[in-house]
Amino acid sequence: MNTPSLDALGQAHLVKAAEAQSGRSAETVFGGREHTLRQTLIAMIAGTTLADHENPGEATLHVMSGHVRLGSDDEDAMDGRAGDLLVVPDSVHHLEAVADSIVLLTVAKHR
């Protein structure tokens, strides 16, 4: 079984994000469309946003580094910094990188 270093992978994606027009880079590190559980590492450059989108299932966001803001129309925005675990609202939401950030998104998709 491959056991990637999430820290090393995150730093590599932060470099890719800095070079990308979107200011983001991501990679699924476990699971995928054919699985119930999916974990995706996302790197975002300060000031970039993942625009409003639906939640495909129960989800958490582990902030590995940086500072992010998770918001929705239904709830007050939540700030997360390195080491924080945010519960993703079960509604349309968005994610903003307040600082260069690396997060691990874990989703258990609805069946």
Please provide a written account of the structure.
The chain has 111 residues and is mostly beta strands. It has a single domain (29-109), classed as Sandwich (Jelly Rolls), CATH 2.60.120.10. 13% of the residues lie in helices and 51% in strands. It has one helix at residues 6-19; strands at 24-31, 37-44, 49-53, 57-65, 67-72, 78-81, 85-87, 93-97, 101-109. The strands form 2 sheets. The chain has a 5-stranded antiparallel beta sheet. Strands 3-8-5-6 form a 4-stranded antiparallel beta sheet, with no helix packed on it. It is globular, with a radius of gyration of 13 Å.
How helix-rich are the residues, as a percent range?
10-25%
Number of domains: 1
**CATH homologous group name:** Jelly Rolls
Q: Determine the number of helices (DSSP H or I, runs of at least 4 residues).
A: 1
Low-confidence region ranges: none
Q: Tally of extended strands?
A: 9
Q: Write the element-wise H/E pattern from the N-terminal end onward.
A: HEEEEEEEEE
Our measurement of the CA-to-CA distance between the termini, rounded to an integer number of angstroms, reads: 27 Å
> What is the average of the pLDDT values?
91
CATH fold-level label? Jelly Rolls
The Cα radius of gyration reads: 13 Å
Strand portion = over 45%
Supply the CATH architecture.
Sandwich
Secondary-structure content class: mainly beta
Broad shape: globular
Which sheet architecture does the biggest sheet show? 5 strands, antiparallel
Please give the CATH class. Answer: Mainly Beta
From the structure above, extract its key features.
single chain; 111 residues; mainly beta; Jelly Rolls; five-stranded antiparallel β-sheet; four-stranded antiparallel β-sheet; 1 helix; 9 strands; 13% helix; globular
